[in-house]
Specification:
Helix content: 40-55%
Shape: globular
Largest sheet: 6 strands, parallel
Radius of gyration: 23 Å
Distance between the termini: 59 Å
Number of helices: 17
Strand order of the largest sheet: 2-3-4-5-6-7
Structural class: alpha/beta
Number of strands: 14
Strand content: 5-15%
Length: 514
């Protein structure tokens, strides 16, 4: 950390106010409480910070004892991306399932219940929903996190989600502006590039974001993606034309007219850190029009916070960053904190619980296709579940359980399971995988569970070999459904949340848990 000459308290507090840092542990560290007292206004939570609803409520109470209007943010999309239920799998289906049902009232109800649970734990800013139009089915990072590939469908469900979440007193952070759906690179690792013209951008990617703005989304998260038609040099997070010239500009001038808080995606992600550095990226983001900088997925300590604070102060002093721009950003963040306090009090009086809405939505999203000319006869004995497990992207994480085995065990006790990774499947070969699965299954029916089968040739080859030997097997697709139906029964869950697995298990077993 570079030593700076004394700065005004206002400048220091403004620099702290625009940061949204994370931390390690399940209680608030002393350094975080100290920085909240010094002017820090937001804190980001990750799965590592959450053990239970009760523990989370105690943690957020610690933060509010120092700063009552603190923004406590979390990445709780429901579906595959969950922090509140990272150890068990989510009680809510994700966006693709909600888009498949295509009932905005249901999406609104799901978001409201999710928001109610977050608010009960003291969380008042959710980095959700994903408004990305998943126009590229090979997208490695969006997929089931999107409401679908149709702009208008994504738009109506984005708006419904924003309305439901904010009705519960939790600010929405619609992401990833201006749209991450047409990428084939994960911005956690590298810089994606989208070569579309501004006309396509306006007719496809921007449609859900316009809907979010009209629905009153309190914040919008930028994407670390390069759109040469908009800015040939800088990704959207660091781009003045993207953030100020498009997102913030009045509608009459061709912009979206957004007046809320612009939040960056995490600046330590490869798309920013590897090209600009974290400190430089933070300065460029605020200068471009961002109001809050998310950091802390990996860089989660006081040194990082102070380094970023000092980088902003230095940029102001050296004329690279206008002090008025920093002050404006800080005030937008503080204003959101005040809104959250006021809205939380109103929402507590008007937030009836709807604990079964997530499971009901997962059941409605399920699509079942029996083999041609047949009807499905539910299993009456415990099956063998073969899970084909791709590497999860960083947003999803590799700790959250998924699949149908645990839910089938509840309905058909004695269910056995085995899993195959890409490395294991390629080492054994497709026929070797099939032989191994059948040897372990014995006389049991086989249930093959896959995720984005169309994106993984190793997985497709293994399932094809398995079905050639055992055509009576069930196939459960828990990712984006692009491959044609196969098996005696083909189930599409539109996501891998726990409730999606339960809905599939109920059809396989032909019963529901009493």
């Amino acid at each position: 950390m570079t030593t700076l000459a004394p700065a005004s308290q206002t400048l220091l507090r403004d620099a702290l106010a625009v940061l949204q840092p994370g931390f390690t542990g399940t209680t608030a560290p002393a350094w975080l409480l100290r920085q909240l007292d010094e002017g820090l206004t937001s804190v980001g939570l990750f799965g590592r910070n959450i053990e239970s609803a009760e523990q989370l409520a105690a943690l957020t109470a610690e933060l509010r004892a120092v700063r009552p209007d603190v923004l406590v943010a979390v990445d709780e999309e429901g579906g595959d991306v969950t922090r509140l239920e990272a150890r068990t799998g989510s009680s809510f289906p994700g966006n693709l399932a909600l888009g498949a049902v295509d009932d905005p009232a249901l999406t609104r109800a799901v978001a409201r219940e999710l928001g109610r649970r977050l608010a009960a734990c003291g969380v008042n800013l959710n980095w959700a929903p994903s408004a990305d139009v998943n126009s590229n089915p090979d997208n490695p990072v969006i997929g089931v996190r999107s409401f679908g590939a149709e702009p208008e469908r994504a738009a109506r469900h984005t708006a419904a989600y924003v309305e439901g979440l904010q009705a519960a007193g939790v600010a929405a952070c619609t992401k990833h502006f201006p749209g991450h759906g047409d990428t084939n690179v994960d911005s956690h690792h590298a810089l994606p590039r989208i070569d579309v013209d501004l006309g396509t951008l306006g007719e496809r990617e921007l449609v859900p974001f316009r809907a979010a703005v009209e629905a009153g989304s309190k914040s919008i998260m930028s994407a670390h993606i390069l759109l040469p038609a908009l800015d040939p040099e800088l990704p959207a997070t660091l781009s003045f034309p993207a953030l100020t010239g498009l997102l913030r500009a009045p509608v009459a001038e061709g912009g979206l007219g957004f007046e809320g808080v612009i939040v960056t995606d995490a600046v330590e992600m490869g798309a920013i850190a590897d090209h600009h550095g974290v400190e430089r990226g933070t300065v460029l983001a605020i200068a471009a029009g961002a109001d809050a900088v998310c950091v802390g997925g990996h860089l989660a300590d006081e040194e990082t916070v102070l380094n970023l604070r000092d980088a902003l102060v230095r940029a102001v002093r050296e004329g690279e960053l206008d002090a008025a721009r920093l002050a404006d950003a800080a005030e937008r963040v503080r204003a959101l904190g005040r809104w959250a306090v006021e809205r939380a009090e109103a929402a507590r009086a008007d937030a009836p619980a709807d604990p079964e809405v997530g499971l009901a939505a997962a059941r409605r999203a399920l699509r079942a296709t029996p083999a041609d000319g047949t009807s499905w006869q539910p299993l009456d004995a415990a099956p063998y579940v073969a899970a084909f497990t791709p590497v999860a992207n960083i947003a999803v994480g590799d700790q959250t359980p998924w699949g149908v085995a645990a839910e089938l065990e509840r309905l058909l006790p004695g269910t056995a399971t085995g899993s195959w990774s890409r490395a294991e499947a390629e080492a054994a070969g497709a026929s070797g995988v099939a032989e191994s699965v059948l040897a372990e299954a014995g006389d049991r029916r086989v249930v093959a569970v896959v995720r984005d089968l169309h994106r993984h040739p190793w997985m497709a080859a293994a399932v094809e070999a398995l079905l050639a030997a055992r055509p009576d097997s069930v196939v459960v697709e828990m990712g984006v459904p692009q491959a044609p139906p196969t098996g005696a029964l083909h189930l599409v869950t539109h996501g891998a949340a726990r409730v999606c697995g339960r809905a599939a298990a109920e059809v396989i077993a032909g019963r529901r848990e009493s």
